[in-house]
Amino acid sequence: MKARMKSSGRAVPIVFRGRLLLAVALVAVLSLCGPVWAQQDANMPTAAETEAMPPTPATAGPFVGEITGNDVFMRSGPGTNFYQCGKLYKADRVQVVETQQGWSCIVPPPGCFSWIAMQYVSINLANPTMGIVTGDNVGVYAGSDFVEPMVSTSKQVSLKRAQTVKLLSEEKDEYYKIAPPQGAYLWVSSQYVQPVQSTAEQIPVQIDGAEGTPTAQPPTPVGMRSESELLDAYYALNKLVKAEQAKPMAQQDYSEIKEKLAKLAENKSAGRAARYAEFTLKQAERF
Q1: I want to staple 251 with a disulfide (CB 3.0 to 4.6 A). Which of 5, 88, 224, 247 is the partner?
Q2: pLDDT per position as a tens digit, 152-187
Q3: SS3 string of 37-78?
Q4: Cis bond leading into 62, ω under 30°?
C-alpha cells in the first residue's frame, strides 16, 4: 500500500515536467515561424491598394468589341443552355453593354429579330412597317431561326401601351417578327470578343428607372447604321417578292426585283444584307 502511494506521488512531477518541456518546444517553433508569417503578410495588398485595383473583366463595359472567331453563336441568355439567335463572324464588331461570368451582353447587330404576340399589336395604316402596342407589359422575346416563336421563351424586354415596334414583314404562329426594340439584348461568349474601343463616355447604358422613364440604348456606329439601312432595303425587296408570289403565275414579274437583289448581293460592305439577298435571288430565279 505504501509502495503504491510513493509511486503515485512521483507521477505528478514527471507529468508536469513533460508538459513544461512541450510548452517550451512550441514557443521555440513559433519564434522560428514568426518572421516567415510576417513576410507573407507584408506581401499582401493593403486596403488602399485593394481599392485602387482595376475592376475585373466580369463587370467591364460598355465597349466596342471585335469577334475573333467564325460561326460564333449569339444566344438568348448568358449560357449554352440558352437557344441560338444567329451567328457572328471574324472581324464583326458588336456593342458590348456588360460582361458577366464569361458572357458578353451585346446590342443585337443588324439582321437579328425578336417576336411579339400579334394580339397586342395594331398595325399603323399610314405606315404598315410600324406596329403600335395595345397592351401593358407586353413581352418581347429573342428571335431565332432555330426555335419556333411559341417556344422562344427568353424575354428581352416588356413594352408599354402605345409604344411602337418595327415590323419585319413576317408573321408566324400568331407572332410578329420585329426589329429588336430598345433594351433588347443578346449574349455571346466573351472568349470570342476582343475589346477594340472604349466607349464608356460615349455609350449610355440602359438604366431601369421609374415607370415612364425612357431607357437609353447605345447609339449605332456609322458602319452598323449603313448595314442596317441595307438590311431595310433587303426587307423591302423581300416584301416585293412575296407580293409577286401572291399574284397569278402569268402576272408575276421578278426582273426588276432580281436586278436590285443582284446589286445588293454584290455589295461587299452589305454584310448580312448581301447574304440574305443572294439567298432570295436564288429563290426568285426558280420562280
Answers
A1: 247
A2: 999 999 999 999 999 987 788 899 999 999 899 999
A3: HHHHHHHCCCHHHHHHCCCCHHHCCCEEEEECCCCEEEECCC
A4: yes
Euclidean distance between CA atoms 230 and 63, whole angstroms: 24
* H or E, element range at 212: none
Instruction: Identify the DSSP state of 174.
Output: T
Over residues 123-163, the pLDDT tens digits come to 877 788 889 999 999 999 999 998 999 999 999 999 999 99
Evaluate whether 63 touches 189 at the Cβ level (below 8 Å).
Answer: no
Spatial distance between the Cα atoms of 35 and 31, rounded to a whole number of angstroms: 8
pTM for the whole thing? Answer: 0.52
Q: Are 249 and 206 in contact (CB under 8 A)?
A: no
Cell for 232? 431595310
- Output the pLDDT for position 59: 42
Q: Which three cell numbers stand for residue 281?
A: 435571288
> Residue 234 in 3-state DSSP?
helix
